Structure formats: structure tokens, C-alpha cells
Thiol-disulfide oxidoreductase (Brumimicrobium oceani), 191 residues
Amino acid sequence: MNDKNKAWLKKRKWDIVFVAFIGLMFIPSVRMPVMSFVQRLFAGSPSEIAAEDQKTVNSMDWILLDLEGKQHNFSASHGKITIVNMWATWCPPCVAEMPSLQKLYDKYGDELAFYFVSNEQPSKIDRFMNAKNYTFPVYIPASNYPKEFDSNSLPTTYVLNQEGKIIMEEVGAHDWYSSSFLEKVDGMLGN
């Protein structure tokens, strides 16, 4: 390769990378992992809602089914810090934030109440969970969700304090294992 071609390549390297990236988006089997990776790169730490804008969940009576079809009531989370994540297996930002949510679940387990809620078929969710080795609890709504969880975007994640007040509401991929979020949870737990 002559010096003129090397200079041209050096000058256009980011253009070539961009075109290659766009080209990858047209390959269905590559699209999801690439989009999830990019979303994960830009995922920020969740932030707390200003105290005056925080809402309390008025009706904790929300019926959910686990992947085996067993019924659960959201009211069981009352008195615990609760994470509610609305997600889907086909959603790149949802998939992007799942590793940090799994780490959060691994760290706190039963200390927090976790509700990962999807409207997809249990068999599809189960295949996804097994393929990714995720162990957090997934539910399918069996009744209407509390009106305070009204969102048209996936993923949407709500963090409730022990009194049932929504202290965080985040849309899109976030890093739920960030040091600032872990400090917030530890502070709420009194650790």
C-alpha cells in the first residue's frame, strides 16, 4: 500500500468504522448485541426524584404471575425497598441494563423486593433467562398495574422506598450497579 492510500485510510478511519457499524445493524443476528453494547456504554447512574415530586403508590394490590404460573401480590413488598423493572426480551436498552440489574439482585437478594415485569410469553422469557444465566424473579401481570407505574417506554424502572414512595423513575438503560446507587441503597438499608 502506497503512502497516498495510507494517508487516505488514516484520514477516513472513523468514517469507515461508522459505515461498518451501520452495516452491522442490517444483520439481524448481530443487531441486538451491538445495540445493547452501545447502550451499555452510555448508560448513566440513576438519580433520585426531588422530594416534592415523589409519588406514593396508592394501591399495592397488584397480582402478578411468576414464570411457573404461581400467583404473587405486589403488596408483599410493602416495607421493603422495591425495584420494579418493566422490560422485554426484544428491547435493546432493556437487554443492555440487565447485567447491572443481575449484579444488584446477586448483591441484595432478599434484602430488597425485585419485580421484573414483562408482557411476553413465559416460554420466551424463560429461554432468554436461561440463555443469559439470569436468576432474578420475572413476573407477568395478571391484573392492572398501579397507576403510578404508567409508562409507555421500555425499560422503565421504579425504585420505591420502604414507605412505598417512588424515589426513582428511570426510562432507558441505566447502570443499576453504580457506586452512587449502591450507596443510596445501603443508606436506605442502614448499612
User: Anything to note?
Assistant: Residues 3-41 form one domain. DSSP finds five helices and eight strands in the chain.
